[in-house]
Amino acid sequence: MRLNSIIRALESGPGIAFTSFMQAEVENAVNFAQSSNDGLVFEMEHNPWDINALRVSMQFLLLREQIVRAGSVANPMSPLVRIPANGSERNEWFAKQALDLGAYGILWPRISNSEQAYNAVAACRYPRLPERSHYEPAGLRGDAPMAAARYWGLPQQEYYKRADVWPLVPEGEILVGLMIEDTEGVNNVEKILKEVPGIGFILIGEGDLSQELGCPREYDNPELLRMMGQVLEVGKAHGVAVGHPHMTRENARQIIDQGYRFLMSYPRRDFSALETGRKIFQEL
Predict the structure, then answer these.
(1) The domain spanning residue 224 has which CATH number?
(2) What span, in angstroms and rounded, lies between the C-alpha atoms of 272 and 173?
(3) Using the 8-state DSSP alphabet, how is residue 266 labeled?
(4) How many domains does the chain have?
(5) What's the whole-number mean pLDDT along residues 84-113?
(6) 273 band by pLDDT with thresholds 50, 70 and 90
(7) H or E element that contains 166
(8) Is 111 left (phi over 0), alpha (psi -120 to 50) or beta?
């Protein structure tokens, strides 16, 4: 059975996953665990890199009753982590620490070219010999699977088999997301998706991109919308899900109709945007 609930959502039906950014805090984890999200992203780019808070929060996402009821070790909601380092910084150790705790994937901020994208995917893979299948991108992840295997509920050898990137390795359970947040990234997204296998989804960073365009957080700016549409169409052409970072009650139908497939809301305690998106999803 598929362990990563976000991948499961992307593989099934219309292929839409509902997620949210969340600070690594116990109360947040308890609230989000009871939502209908497919997964969430622990936001640790603009929040402190607190590895202990991440570890504890991930534990409070686990819903034992639902796991037992489903007859599978898979938790209903899978955590990803947005790390602090931009793509150009190539700080693979952030990804390594998050994956070693049991995170099901990494969201990399500000990926602008193929070299940075290659490094992002490579950092989420264990090394292998060149003659083995799916060698590229050549893995960089260090070997310390104990906590991750325990979190996934698998023996270590089974964890190794499944701890690879999807969709490059179909049975892989690790999701690599790249944020396109500048004009260089927008102009290079076609090249990135052609040259780098193993990218699970693209998420458009409206905030940073609008800053560069001189229209900070003016989300209806025509040039910003044009660039977002460009990324969306490239993603569709390559079969890679493109994410929208601000799903609301007001725009949910529009962005679903446009073809965004990784939908992020900011529910806090109000899950109305998520409920609206779910209702539209059920009508598809």
Answers:
(1) 3.20.20.60
(2) 29
(3) -
(4) 1
(5) 97
(6) confident
(7) strand 165-166
(8) beta
Domain that holds residue 61: 5-283
Between CA 207 and CA 143 the distance in angstroms is: 36
Distance of CA 263 to the CA centre of its chain: 10
- Helix axis angle for 26-33 and 51-61, nearest 10°, is 30
Residues whose CB is less than 8 angstroms from the CB of residue 75 and which lie 6 or more positions away in sequence, other chains included? 5, 61, 62, 63, 66, 67
For residue 143, the model assigns a pLDDT of 97
Task: Supply the DSSP string of 2-23, one letter for each residue.
Answer: ---HHHHHHHSTT--EEEEEE-
| Mean pLDDT value across the chain | 95
From CA 68, how far away is CA 180, in angstroms rounded?
A: 38
3-class state of residue 140 by DSSP: coil
A 10 A CB-CB count for 265 gives 26
| Per-residue model confidence (pLDDT) at position 232 | 98
pTM: 0.95
Instruction: Measure CA of the first residue to CA of the last residue in the chain; give whole Å.
Output: 25
Q: Which pLDDT score, from 0 to 100, does residue 269 have?
A: 53
Q: What is the 3-state secondary structure (H, E, C) of 182-244?
A: CHHHHHHHHHHHHHCCCCCEEEECHHHHHHHCCCCCCCCCHHHHHHHHHHHHHHHHCCCEEEE
- Give pLDDT tens digits for 12-48: 989 999 999 999 999 999 988 988 899 999 999 999 9
Q: Which two tokens stand for residue 138?
A: 């050549």
